[in-house]
Amino acid sequence: MILFLAARPVTPPPVRPTPPRRRRGRRAPTRPGSRTPTRPGRPAPTQPSPGSPYTRLFAVPGTRAFTAAGLLARLPMGMLGVSAVLMIAGSRGSYALAGAVAATGLAATALAGPWTARLIDRHGQSRIAVPATALAALGSLALLLCVHYDAPAWTLFVSYAATATTPNTGGMARARWAHLLRDDPAARHTANSFEQAADELCFMLGPVLATLLCTALFPEAGTAVAAALLLDGVLLFTAQRRTEPPVAPRDTASRSPLRLPGLPPLLLTFLATGAIFGSLEVVTIAYADHHGARSVAGGILALQAAGSCAAGLVHGLIRPAGTLAGRFRGRVAAMAALMPLPLLAATTDSLVVLAAALLLAGLATAPTMITGMGLVQSRTPPGQLNEGMTLAVTALLSGIAAGSATGGWAVDHLPAATAYAIPATAAALALLITLLTTHHHRAHPAP
User: Distance between CA 150 and CA 336 in Å, rounded?
Assistant: First the structure.
């Protein structure tokens, strides 16, 4: 600047204008495509590097608090099923009974879940989720007492069915992200990837913790701790009121999302995908028990969730390309290709080989669920977002229930290794459904 001024003519210049300065009460000029500047008197936010989308995600105020509480509330989701199977099979000596009870509870949740979600959309998360969770915790306590005092078998089904009012904490968290990031599709993609990775993390740590509690302490310990964590987590989650999405008007939530074009076929794929998870859990527990290693069953299951969690986090760093429907077909195809690996590994009678196969098979799980949830959000009106995502989870839980029952029957009537054909078949069925039903549909505006 000094050299430039020295080269100018010596003629008296006009009055030198002052450097452009941001005046109080006026916005500074911005370049096209740049972020809107902050209000006067507040420091400009630090711009994170383009390679750190997760840093940018949690820079939004309030997101860290509801995310931490949501993780605590979701951890029991990975504990309850394993705890119930270990508790019932250990006391009654039947994996078929344990799988049937778990299937009944999940089927009841599949029926009650959409109604709970609709009430949450209409009346708010904090008003509905807390009493619904309290009822579910009482159901878990009733199951524990029935098992402990050797009550008739039918009481186990009734007690576990009472947990059906458990709210979908993952869906409520995704609804908060969708509300906070409604103007940033790229950030919503990262948020959905993180939420799926969080689900996988809970299903990775949950079985390990449940197995440890049920084997190291007493059979009912896993169910008792899971119920306590669920209630405390939901209380902390709903206490974060500033990130809670607004209540949907009643006129926009009068019709079920099941009537929306494109959503029912997608739910069929979630149903088959759930069958993979349900059968894989029961079959793996029984396989480890058959080899005298029941205590490591939770750790083996955790490896499958670990692979899925890692794949989900990496998926959030990759910018999506192509259509959602096309990406979903590719993800389901990858899942169907990897799921026969546990069947092949089980024939080796090596738990180490099986654990490695489950780790590899899990790599396609989270990307499939992330893309599928993105399709659900694109095909659901904003006022019914929580209900639409709960329907997806309902289909998933229904599949898990069917897979648990089928897997329980398989391990009682088939060789332990052969039972792994159940999740492999379910994965092939999910691919077939996707190829036959997934088409382009008009997307709804982002919530």
Answer: 41
